[in-house]
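Hi W.,

Here's what went into the run:
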Amino acid sequence: MLWSGQVSAQTAFLEQREFPVKSGMVRVKMAVSHTRKSAVELTVRLKGPGKDQETPGPVLSEGVTISPDQFKIPPNKIRKLMISFPAEVSTRTPYFACVLYQPPVERMEAGRLGGSMLLATESCSRFWVNP
Amino acid sequence: MKVLQAAVAAAFLISPAPLLASSANIDATGRAPTFCNISNDKGAISMAISPAGDLLSGAGRFSYVANGNAKLVLSAIGQDAPQGAAASIPSISLADLVVNRSTTSEAASKPSGGVIRQEGDITASIVQDNEARLLTAGDYALKATATCTSL
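Here's what came out:
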């Protein structure tokens, strides 16, 4: 059973929300799914702390391994993956595991007057890294 | 009478052994992981010019679901405008949850405080911000990311 409601959106699931640092590294197991009508490409990203404990910060990439980090997945399937990253924390610190869906760009008709807006959507789950 | 007694005794002797008393504890547990998700249900949104030529606007639909405390963030807006265009202000809103009019800062909703399931309009617009009160002719495009975070 997928815990993603009836929304045609992508969801990031974490088995746990607290992770220790072992040998300077954190390893996070997560799963991703979506309920759109057809297969879509999703991108997984790790974000660090933001301006407060509830807001994701910038995307982290240095030393971060996400396997796999980008993939096409049919609807209602669960893709398990692993995020590992180096961390040196002295206090309990929030991180965010995120899955991004970028809708396809639609070309405007030639000569058409106006504009367009493209809104990507991203679902994040907060987790904590403990010293 | 002896015949009856014998029949009862025989019936008792050949009856199956009584079942041993037993019990089974049913211990069912489960845990629903917290999550949130948000979708842009209609893809790219087309914006049309107003009769006065001072505004481009369009609308789409979003769905937002969270089974625990969550919040929404709209990223800083990326705006493409015709070269040399007169000043204008972009705006993106998700119903009454969050609105952003900045090309440099993100905007956040209040935490949901609990479960939430909401559908609503995505509103996108570019309004003139110049003395002529007009948008320069040409193509405009807005880009942003709506992020829900399960807390």
